[in-house]
Every structure is written in C-alpha cells, then in structure tokens.
Amino acid sequence: MTFKINPRFRSPLHEEPQYLFQDYHLNSELVAHAQTDLVESEINQDQSGEGEKSVSLTAKAIYDQSMASAKSVYQSVLPIASYPRATVVPLTRTQLNSSFNFEQVVARRRSLRGPTQREISLDELSYILQYSAAEVEIAMGNQSAMPSQTDARSQYPYRVYPSGGGLYPLEVFIIPRTVVGLDTDTYHYELEHNLAGLGQPIPEHVLHKAFFGRDVPLRSGAIVIVNALFRRSSYKYGERAYRLVMVEAGAMLQNMSLACEAIGLRFCMVCGFVDSLLASYLGNNGIDEGIVMCGAIGKK
Question: What is the number of domains present in the chain?
Fold first, then answer.
C-alpha cells in the first residue's frame, strides 16, 4: 500500500525524530507494568491488611512516576492536527429552532437513504459540528453558566462527546458537496469552531472510486471523514486505545446523527470506502493514524 502524501499538509506526526518513538514505547511499557504492579499490590493489601501497605505505596509511586514520564513524552511527541497555511472559514455559533424534543429526535432518527443532493446551509453544517464535535464551551455558548471545562485528568477542554482519559484522538474533515458558501475543497474542523480549507480538493473521480460509486456519500450535502490519531490515546492505554477510539467515534457520529435529525436533515454512517485513496489526500500514513469512519449529511 502506498500513499501520495503532500508534504505541505503533513501533521507534526510526520516530522518527529525516531528517538521520540522509542521513548514513547518505553514509557508505554513502564506504565503497563506499573499498572499491573499497582493492582496486584492492592489485592495483596486487601488480603493481608497493614503488612502489605508499604508494597502498595511503592507500586503507586512507580505508577505515578511512570505516568508523569509518559505524559512528558506525550506532550512533546503526540500530534495535534494543525494547518497553518489553510484558508480559514469562521463558523458562527448557531441556534436553530427544532420542531422536536429530545425524545422525538431519538425516536425519529433514521439513516440517510436516497439523498437528493439539495443544498444545505453553512449554518446547518455549523449547528451539526457544534453539537457533535465541538468543545463544550462552543456548544453551550455562555461560559459563565457552565461547569469547569477541564479537570486534572484531561489534557484538553471537554468536548460534547466522551473520550477515554479526555485525550480526544479524533479529527473531523468535511468534503462539501452542496454546502452554500463553501468552495470545493477538503476542510479540517478546528476547535475554534472554524473550517480550515486545505487547498487540497479530492478530485471527483477519486471520490467516486473511494466510495465505490455509492449515491449516499456522493449525492449528499457533505461527506464527513473521521480520522484518528491513535497515539494520543495509546500512550496511556496501550492496545486498548484502539477499542476506546472506536467507541469514541461511534459516540461522536451518533451526536451528529441526532443533530441532523433535530433540524430536519439526515445522516448516514459510511463504512464502505477505500482507506488509502482518502488517506493520501489527508496526509495520513495509515499506521499511526487512520480513517475510522465516514458519514454523509443530506436532505431527507
């Protein structure tokens, strides 16, 4: 499998020196061993009483030291998607009136079928992203009325979907098909509630091949691509990070589906796509990061 990566749009992941990868793996192993020792020592303490308390404290000290070391590597190594050369399209916080209450939205939700390629507005797209992928502050609007947006366990402000350890490894890309006000391009959704146009549109024949000519994505108002930067989670959770990433993607896309339903649109998850074709236009190497799911937004 080969990838045609445009170096102009590489994320920091593609520019990291090799020794940082080695440090990352070393710290992952230390954390895994320390977690095991901590659990075992706590079990021994429960069984033996005070006699094993010093062992438990020692294991906890090792665990805390390993986590601190891993976080140090995490902060300097793990990528955060950034596109400084992108053309930024600001999105406004949008409050669209829904004709349905929450119970009705959940009950009425259906996957998009037979899209009509009718136009969707930039406000509608903004609303969908605001309530599916944004930081909580963006979704709520009034910061003074909100609870604290971070805690000691999270590296980032909270978003509107759950994430293991508050690490948020998912990135969202939008390919507009009939979105009023957006040019034909590939856009990255940024947490400032902007769309960053990469100047790297995916040609129509490539999209047709990537989605096997299926109407649901190709005749939709917008295609959504969810990309995972796995090492933002695996530094802490090891191999289990893969499971957490998939659960997180499902939670985000369900939010997207419900947000669409609330304003009279439809959403469909799309799992039939050629990873390498899409990845080559996102600067995605398919190893440390990968596309986990796509979706289509359209009119009923």
Answer: 2
Q: Which residues of the chain have pLDDT under 50?
A: 1-27, 77, 143-148, 150-154
**Cβ distance 266 to 111 under 8 Å?**
yes
pLDDT digits (tens, 9 = 90+) for 35-87: 555 555 555 555 555 555 555 556 667 666 666 665 555 555 455 677 777 88
Cα gap 138→190, rounded to integer Å: 12
CATH code of the domain covering residue 259? 3.40.109.10
Helices of type H across 49-121: 53-77, 102-108
The burial of 201, by beta-carbon neighbours within 10 Å (0-12 exposed, 13-18 middle, 19 or more buried), is given as: middle
Cα separation, 129 vs 187, in Å, equals: 13
Q: Please return the burial class of 18, using the count of CB atoms within 10 Å of its CB with bins 0-12, 13-18 and 19+.
A: exposed
